[in-house]
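User: Fold this; tokens only.

Assistant: Input:
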Amino acid sequence: MIHILSTHLFVNHRLTSALLTRIEQAGIPAVEIFCARQHLDYRNKAQIAELGHWFRDSELKLHSLHSPMYNDEIWGRSGPHAVVSICDTVKARRMEAVDEIKRAVEVAEVIPFRYLAQHMGVSGEEFDLRKFDAAFAALEELCIFARQRGVEILLENIPNELSSAERLQLFNTLTHLGMHYVFDTGHAHMGEGVEAAYSLMRDRIRSTHVHDNDGKADSHIFPLVGEGGSIDWKKTMELLRGRADQYPLLLELKEVQGLANPLEKVKEVFERLEAQ
């Protein structure tokens, strides 16, 4: 399978050409960049231009962006107004979210990428058909905007009542948008289970987020080398290999304080997963 690393691993650090060079030198062929403004400030034309020059001269490819979850630089701690949600039933706030996501998609005009990973709602959000209506209105506009820039928006299964594998299927049935998916192993493990979620999503999976947890906390543990994870990786890799030409093996990991060489651990994770 193609190996890709999400820069979520370094999300609390500014994304620089030096960091991307380290990833490239580790032998990783492509990345997903996480749109958090303390990391990649997609509004900052100077940062985007600098990274664009670097990518043009590099073998490292930009596979995808992860859509912004907050519009501030401190993980939403500036207040509820910082949350970027396409499911907001208040139209003015939803349009603000749509505009914020468009700013991230515009990165493709400088650094081409194929996919945008998009959440529906926030962690723990309750189900409400009005929120589906809101997401439908937002995605109708966003999908057109993204396609004009060569980008496809993918919906991700996340731990809430709007975005389980079953609810994503329901959303597609009700809206006829024909959305494809990002399959997140850790989020599936917290919900209906990896095998059950995969069986519902598999035909429409175009990318992945691979990480581990204990089935309760969304801790983004390094699979097979981190402590506290409980996913059955032998079974999970059997499932993922069943359609290996349809999506990459994309690690979305959390920084471990005190870990001196995280990219060496990333390479070890890829090796151990492939050995399953």
